[in-house]
Design a protein that fits this description.
mainly alpha, transmembrane
Length: about 140
């Protein structure tokens, strides 16, 4: 049972860390794309009535295309929403990890049947969290 608990502990730590890494990455993307969208749309809006010709007109055209594309990326990507889902999943995995730490510290005082029962409940909670969590890319996982 010690080997099982050690394996579960490692897997829960990796899941928690992986989701936090994804969350941070997605929040950064949300910030970058949001700031770039604000910047580009402000330039396009402020230069709307400007009588431009030549290179300036071409630059404004490309900035307006960039602004429209960023608007679609921000809307479709939903980076902040996805980041929050990963943060919530990481928090849930952290809760399970702390429950397992608590069980490991009390294992000498528990009967085998009690320990098996508590591990079963923890496994069921883990399955529920895994089922409702977003996928974590391999790039976010901790390498052992």
């Amino acid at each position: 049972m010690d080997a099982l608990m050690a394996d579960w502990y490692t897997r829960l730590c990796n899941a928690q860390t992986g989701h936090y890494v994804c969350s941070e990455r997605l929040y950064r993307w949300a910030d970058y794309t949001g700031y770039l969208l604000i910047f580009s749309s402000t330039i396009v809006t402020s230069c709307f009535f400007l009588q431009a010709d030549g290179g300036l007109k071409l630059m404004l055209f490309f900035i307006s295309v960039l602004s429209a594309a960023l608007s679609g990326i921000v809307s479709f990507g939903r980076f902040a929403e996805k980041a929050e889902l990963h943060r919530s999943a990481a928090s849930s995995y952290g809760k399970l990890r702390r429950q397992l730490e608590n069980l490991r510290s009390k294992k000498s005082g528990l009967q085998d049947d009690d320990m098996i029962s508590k591990l079963k409940v923890l496994r069921i909670e883990w399955e529920y969290i895994s089922e409702n969590s977003p996928l974590t890319p391999k790039s976010a996982l901790v390498r052992n």
